[in-house]
Amino acid sequence: MPPKQRITREMILERSFEMFCREGMEVINARSVAKALNCSTQPIFSYFSGMEDLKSALEQKAKELFENALKVKGLSDDPMINICCAYTRFAAEQPCLFTHLFMINKDDPLYPFISKDERHELVEDEAAYLNIPFDAAAKIFVQMSVYSHGLAAVRAAHKANFTAEEMARMVEGTHKMTVLSIRYSMENPDA
Q: What CATH fold (topology level) applies to the domain 9-59?
């Protein structure tokens, strides 16, 4: 009967994910993971077809963590403020994951944090919440996305040490100014 392996797939994923969160994907290689687990590289390759397979599993785990972060309700009833605050909070709490998911490995450079279908639903929700047309809410979405991404990137890069509360106030203030600007444009189309 072969000896039972003491290193499990979950152990490899968990330790690798800790390293990914703390230092970024660039530190993930067979030797560094094996060293962190105090084992040889053999268990890694018995559970994963290669390092790309492990990195893919880690990236999926990061995306799931991000998706869960977006589900946390914010301080506002406004759906746009909530998602922008969740996005910036994730950048503050998980700078390495944020950088990997939204700065280095981005599928959609302008709206990296939300799919096209989710984007449409969010804009619809914002339009209903603010009682404005869909196209006006879409303009708010574009401006808030760009602002929130910039704020999140600055925070993740440690260029500013804003707290989650400070970022929430900044998002709320920018949203308020954006909504006022859009409403003014709707009421004064020739201005």
A: Arc Repressor Mutant, subunit A (1.10.10)
